[in-house]
């Protein structure tokens, strides 16, 4: 699958899970959606860094480099918040739900930026054949990265 298509598929799933996490009133439903979300986010982010960001920060165009560094920075924020959410015991508590809501806001912003800026950088920088190869690498890496 072409890389931006593969990334978009995960983005839709991550957004769906975040909606469940922040709107469900059932603790069990939130917990299972959160476990799925945490695993997918980790796999997606690490594979995306390796297959996409690493290549963008190596380009000569400084705007493209900066988009890549911006992505790394937003991943770092999401990782911090994810670790905090993993520590929380009660997914229905106001504290946990507040953190989950901020995670949803950060990720929705991050995904929008990726789909606008990063996707166009990728399309302008790499030929379709390379983008398909990047998509294969992305899926393989996701399988290898522990949840
Ligand atoms: Fe992404
Ligand atoms: Fe990302």
Radius of gyration: 16 Å
CATH class: Mainly Alpha
Number of helices: 5
Arithmetic mean of pLDDT: 97
Globally, the shape reads elongated
Instruction: Flag low-confidence runs.
Output: none
Q: Cofactors and ligands present?
A: fe (ii) ion
Q: Could you state the order of secondary-structure elements as H and E?
A: HHHHH
What is CATH's topology name? Answer: Four Helix Bundle (Hemerythrin (Met), subunit A)
Percentage of residues in strands:
under 5%
**Estimated structural class:** mainly alpha
> Approximately how much helix is present in the residues?
over 70%
The CATH architecture can be given as Up-down Bundle
| Total number of distinct structural domains | 1
CATH superfamily: nmb1532 protein domain like
**N-C termini distance:** 22 Å
């Amino acid at each position: 699958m072409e890389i931006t298509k593969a990334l978009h598929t995960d983005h839709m799933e991550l957004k769906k899970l975040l909606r469940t996490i922040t709107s469900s009133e059932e603790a069990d439903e939130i917990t299972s959606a959160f476990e799925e979300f945490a695993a997918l986010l980790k796999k997606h982010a690490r594979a995306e860094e390796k297959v996409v960001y690493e290549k963008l920060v190596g380009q000569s165009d400084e705007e493209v480099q900066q988009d890549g560094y911006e992505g790394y920075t937003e991943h770092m924020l999401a990782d911090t918040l994810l670790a905090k959410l993993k520590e929380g015991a009660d997914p229905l508590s106001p504290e946990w739900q507040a953190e989950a809501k901020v995670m949803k806001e950060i990720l929705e912003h991050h995904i929008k930026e990726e789909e606008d800026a990063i996707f166009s950088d990728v399309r302008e920088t790499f030929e379709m054949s390379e983008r398909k190869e990047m998509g294969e690498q992305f899926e393989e890496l996701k399988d290898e990265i522990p949840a």
